Every structure is written in C-alpha cells, then in structure tokens.
Amino acid sequence: MIQDRALRPTTKVLPEHIRLNNRTLVLQTLYRSGLQSRADLARETGLTRVTVSDLISELMGENLVIELGQRQESRPGKPATLLDINRVAFQIVSLDLSGHTRLRGAVLSLDGAVLSSSEVELAGARGEAAFDKVAELLAQVIARATAPILGVGIGSPGIVDRAGVVRNAPNLGWRDQPLQARLQDATGLPVRVVNDANAAVLAEHSFGGADHDLLLVKVGHGVGAGLLIGGRAIFGERFAAGEIGHVVIGTDDGPLCVCGKSGCLEAWLSVPRLTAAIHDATAQAATPADAERAVSDILTEAGRRLGIILAPVVGALNLLEIVLSGPPELLDGPLSTATVETLRSRTMATETGDLTLRMTAQGEDIVLRGAAVMVLSAQLGVS
Ligand SMILES: [Zn+2]
User: Fold this and answer.
1) Which InterPro entries does this UniProt record tie to the protein (predicted)?
2) Ligand 1 (ion): which residues have CB within 5 A?
3) Rounded Cα gap, residues 321 and 212, in angstroms
C-alpha cells in the first residue's frame, strides 16, 4: 500500500500533536457513529482504554461529550455507559455570500441542520458598503443563536486565501479584503472564510455521503469548482484551484465573456447566460415543439462544453464522482446527460467506466452547510 504522507517531512511529531490527534480521533468517531461506550471507542480507534477514558474526561469537562444512559446488555456484568458528542451544547453560524442579489445567513446545529435563517438584500452594494451588509447580517444571525456559538463559517465568492483574505471578488467589489480578521475582531468569535465552491464540496463530503475523491461544479452567477482529493480540499498555489469559470473551451471561440475572452465556461454555463439564451430561443420559436427543441439544444451544448473542460481533469486525477450544484431545472436533464456522455467519450473507458455524475441533494443550503463544516473541522477536527 502506498503510504499517505508528505514526500518531505519538515517537522517532528511532538507528544502534544499525538494527544491532539487522539482527541480528534475520538471526537470524529463519536461524531460519525454516535452512541459508543468507552470500550467501543477503544476498539474502533485502536487507542488503549486508559487513553480513551482520559480523553473522554477532558471532553466531558469541555461539555463536548455527554453520557446518554446505559446499553441494554444480555450478558451479565456492569452495563456499558453510552457516550455521544453533545450535539445541542453548541451551534454554528454560517453565511453564504455567493448570491448576486442577496446574502444569506443561518444558525446550524452541529449536525448541519439549518435551525433559523436570515437574508439581506445586497442592493448593488460593493466594497465597504458590501462589507457593512455582511457585518449587519452576521450580527442578526448571531442574535438568533440559542446556544453558545462554536464558530462562524463564511462561503465567499472569489479567491480566498488561507488567512481568510478575499483576494479578489469582482461581484462584491473586493480586493484583498481581510474578511476573516475583520469579522473576528468585530464579533470576538472564531471565523473561517472560504471560497463558496470549496465550502460546497465540504458539505457534499460531510452531509452528502461522498466518501471518495470528488469534484463539485457549482453553477450560479458564475461557475466554480471544489476539489476533494484524499480527504483534503485542494486550494492550489494561489488559492484559485477550481476556478474553471474563465477557462476557454475549444478553439472555436464562442460567446463573449465578461472577462473579455470568448468561449469561457462561464459564458456557456452561468445561470444568467443560460437563462438569457433560453429566453431568446423561446421567443423566436414558431411552435411550442420548436421552442422545446431549441431549449434542449442550448442545454445540451452547455453540458457538452462542461464535459470537454472536465475530461482532462477527470483523466489526470482519475476521478469517479462529479456532483453538480445549481438550479435543477437547468442542470438536471439534457445538460447533465450531455456532460456525462462527453466525459465518457473523451476519457479512457477502463479508468472512468464507473464515473458517476449527479445533482447534489444539499439544495440551496449547500454553502451554508459547507461553511459549518469548516467550523467543525477547525474547532473540533471533525467533519
Ligand atoms: Zn471569461
């Protein structure tokens, strides 16, 4: 088996790292499996009973783990006490800044359920005015939490670096906006800011049952992708991994894009572009049957273009699972059929024969839920 480790180790493993790793392992096991005894945890994690008991005492002291009664045993002897993550002790606050007309926020449970949500209209706000809208929404959502807040997760459009600085988000008029640090100062809470498509892929991983390497394509005002390889989100050298929206497809030009090039993926596939093309085709059609055919042609061509752009990525990474997030009435039909057919015809059947392409089941809360995963992962090490 190939060892999953970095090629060039740069630091030695310290005892406190081992302790943190074991603590995370126990929390992760409880988060995923729930209701385990100390003996179950020792068996499941390979840690000793003493280590598990010690870590559980520490976690109970922080109110992160609770005892939930005893297991009914058929065998004689003392029944085992069952433990779980204290799922109601904390809540998570998430914001989704990717909508082009309104910003959304929610309070979520540790299991990723939306408990309450709020919205503010962006009303064309840009730059500092857009920041003020975000701060206003965040304060509103925080006020609605009914338990201590574990942290704040934010999915932002554009390129976001590891420190939560939004390097470039044209729709919000932000360049080098230190969103994470500013909101952390404003609220006194731990804040994590990530790109919206990267948040979406984390939601699919944690709550959508995607256990494997995964590429998620998010189609909205723009088009972006999130990549999860070997259990890690891939951010890239300049934090722009997955930014496929302004990659030109093919050599036959195509529609002019806002960026000045012709035939970018976004020019074929973004929601405003598809909606406008469908509107025009429907208006020009002589009969309803003609209109239906024209719409199907537009969606098929967009799906084919997406397949062309994804084929080398799928081939290079040997991906078997692709998930689409966006309006199902546009994506789930001729478009996704054309994408998967194009992918199959352009890659090696032996390697990608099992390739699946599906719609996400996370709906419009996908970025909110993914931002919550960032908080769970940063604060507790679970996902
Ligand atoms: Zn472009």
Assistant:
1) ATPase_NBD, ROK, ROK_cs, WH-like_DNA-bd_sf, WH_DNA-bd_sf
2) 246, 257, 259, 261, 264
3) 8
More confidently predicted of 351 and 249: 249
C-alpha of residue 373 to centroid of ligand 1, in Å:
30
Q: Note the pLDDT of residue 4.
A: 54
Alpha-carbon distance of 149 to 188, in angstroms, equals 11
Say how many Å lie between the CA of residue 255 and the centre of ligand 1. Answer: 10
User: Taking all residues of the chain, what is their mean pLDDT, rounded to a whole number?
Assistant: 92
For residue 337, pLDDT beyond 60: yes
Pair 115, 91: CB distance under 8 Å: yes
Sorted by where each begins, the domain ranges of the chain are 15-85, 91-202+365-380, 208-359
Q: What is the mean pLDDT of residues 50-62?
A: 96
88 vs 86: CA distance, rounded Å: 6
pLDDT tens, residue by residue, 88-129: 999 999 999 998 889 999 999 999 999 999 999 999 999 999
SS3 category, 351: helix
Q: From edge to edge, which strands make up the β-sheet containing 114-121?
A: 114-121, 102-108, 91-96, 149-156, 191-195
Q: Is 226 exposed, middle or buried (0-12, 13-18, 19+ CB in 10 A)?
A: buried
Angle at 264 between CA 170 and CA 236, to 5 degrees: 65
Ligand 1 centre distance from Cα of residue 179 (Å): 25
Helix (H, G, I), strand (E, B) or coil at 22: helix
Q: pTM for the full model?
A: 0.91
Q: Is the dihedral of CA 323, 324, 328, 331 positive or negative?
A: negative
* 97 Cα to the center of ligand 1, angstroms: 21
pLDDT of residue 3: 46
Distance 274 CA to ligand 1 centre (A): 15
Alpha carbon distance 324, 230 (integer Å): 20
Quick one: fold of 91-202+365-380?
Nucleotidyltransferase; domain 5 (3.30.420)
Where helices occur in the chain by DSSP H, the ranges are: 15-33, 38-45, 49-61, 128-144, 179-187, 196-207, 265-269, 271-284, 288-317, 328-331, 334-346, 349-352, 366-380
In degrees to the nearest 10, what's the CA dihedral of 198, 200, 205, 209?
-160
What's the first-to-final CA gap in the chain, in angstroms?
Answer: 25
